[in-house]
């Protein structure tokens, strides 16, 4: 059987002429801000990217991640990290072998049909992603619920935004953020809670900085357990204890009611339920709230006054509220404050949930969750199920709730779900409680992974790998946090045999439709049309989008007034019903809400403690969060050494006082252990982290932070620690908190290996080092790069690999030789030293660069006390010919001439904290003047602006103390 016909996009977009230079408008694939980008390409290669000045989300700005998109799409990266053809494993653990698309999809069809026939439709599950396009999402949702007959389709957006969905619906009646980005320009008070906006949504943060500059009277409150860079812009910082948000919000409402700062007229006309809530918040006295939350009572009063009495208050929130067993209550309790003070439905006011992924909103719109149906319909509503069934042309839609993300993998681990189809997501890194997730992937009878990147951890568990297109190649739509729909356009064709996600799903669906129905093949290839009525008649993304558009008619998110043609001209916000000339920027301005009585509802939010509070055996609260320059599991950003400049290696951050109490020094290895697992990681002192708290970035999965346990099991990164306990309403897990203990790891033997590699081998070497990492109790492996400004990176940057490891004793010499060979340290020109009795070994490779010899690669094993200066010698490409004997001498002191450039602050211009300190030492004036001097002298902060919060923090320090960040 030949491949069924699906048309991806116009042929001219797929096959640009060789050497032709083109520019293509599209959308950034990272966070929910939804920035517009202009992709520069030549032939079939992406060569550059810049912000789209006409896109209303970013007006031409991009953050560090967005501005380096083209560097992760260059040919060597693409060829080494991409999945380029379908691959099949005959047996788990085997190396996958290539096969054709036809054979691959027939194999998938046979396997799913057999499992469905023997065990029923609920024996299969589809786990998809907020990084899929809306059209992709729509097809998968229809495939599961309309064809297979199961609601077992859920998404990694469950891990990110489902509590926001539940909170909006519980209070306002619909999953619709009532605000827009422009509201930051009209707000008198911005209340940021549970969001490190400076890192997670950098371009929105730039707009907040602009709003503050334009309106110095603007009050900003920042509420979070960590004093992150976002705190730097705040007039008031509330360092609450993890998980106490509901108590805080109830306490704020208590004060507002007591002081008469609420709006009784608005409450009476537009809301219900306040009396029940009053009975709950009556007990949330300022003394109790201050004690539970760990904040000053005076600050609680100030926050309540600013929030309630401001002309307009805008709240911004993200995973700190959502990723919690009380996630829905946290969201609803914050919305209660807006309803009580009438801070909604007007410019500058309202509760604004910031979506974490580029299309988490689009997935919600098409019902791509186990409890939703298309166009914000509820699975539990018989009328809604009947409407969707009629739209799709099926007899019915199943009414049994599907398995949500955590439930789906638990069901697979228990043998209830036997087949998993995973698309565009990496649950073997991102899901909590990795022991359960990996057991699920191992036990499932059949696992399909539909993925662009071959390097993700989940690919290791796949029976069938299907290559998908990615950013720069895809076509369709996404919806950002402010309900704005943008077009995604292809600049180049997908490499190899990769196909678009929607096309893969449609092809599979048609085959499965034929198999399950017993009908002949439902597609006439000669005429490129269905023979009979098929559930999946789509030949291009626009045909899918048009069906989705029709499903919204008369709904709260009505987009019947939009079209692909209009979206090509400008991104549009919903709702925009037929006949409208533009979308609606703000909702509920008339005080009418999408509820049966038209009123919003106060939710009676009762404070509940954490699912896993600190206790004597696990005395630390571990939180997780984002790094400035990385994205999720780093399958894309992790290919680029320059994005590791700001945070070079994994670590657990602790308060300096906690470290002193436990006799821990900077860089010591520690065991971080929860009730589910343990990892080994270096410790780092951080003033951002509160006492009895710890922080590990969410990005450090097993590909970058690994090793093996005492029982020989591979360690799985930070999510080996997190709990799968979830909010009972939203089913979103409490990824933001786990109770842990932190103990010094007694691993006296250490290794550090660094080497410059050619661009076309660096990533391949890192993949080979993944297997080496499993042979040590602790190991980390990351790329790095040299100091080249972003504008020169495409031509002048070098790529290196860093491996760090530790063990109880020296490993076999064969293992060290293997590491040396991978870094090119196996030739006769390599300088060597070895003392097997002491477990020490060194290897150094130098190469001539003009008149100088420079260090190209090295291994320090056993004694790594000289790591700082030798690493500086290599990474800063300093002359090394004078240090030959010292390089091989264990414990050698650092030469005076070898001084580190410092910690990178500005990724665009490679400016370090030491350079900034030197510049600030010679500058005077207030923070603004000192920042201006930095930007004038060093150019830092003048390109993407992601480093500006850190620059301001450094500029606030006294001139005599230009300390490291």
Automatic annotation (TrEMBL):
InterPro entries: Asp_de-COase-like_dom_sf, BFD-like_2Fe2S-bd_dom, BFD-like_2Fe2S-bd_dom_sf, CT_Nitrate-R-NapA-like, MoPterin_dinucl-bd_dom, Mopterin_OxRdtase, Mopterin_OxRdtase_4Fe-4S_dom, Mopterin_OxRdtase_prok_CS. CDD domains: MopB_CT_Nitrate-R-NapA-like, MopB_Nitrate-R-NapA-like. SMART domains: Molybdop_Fe4S4. Its cofactor is Mo-bis(molybdopterin guanine dinucleotide); [4Fe-4S] cluster. It comes from the Bacteria. PANTHER family: NADPH-FE(3+) OXIDOREDUCTASE SUBUNIT ALPHA, RESPIRATORY NITRATE REDUCTASE. Residues 21-77 form the 4Fe-4S Mo/W bis-MGD-type domain. This is Molybdopterin-dependent oxidoreductase. Keywords: 4Fe-4S, Iron, Iron-sulfur, Metal-binding, Molybdenum, Nitrate assimilation, Oxidoreductase. Pfam families: Fer2_BFD, Molybdop_Fe4S4, Molybdopterin, Molydop_binding. Belongs to the prokaryotic molybdopterin-containing oxidoreductase family. NasA/NapA/NarB subfamily. PROSITE patterns: 4FE4S_MOW_BIS_MGD, MOLYBDOPTERIN_PROK_2.
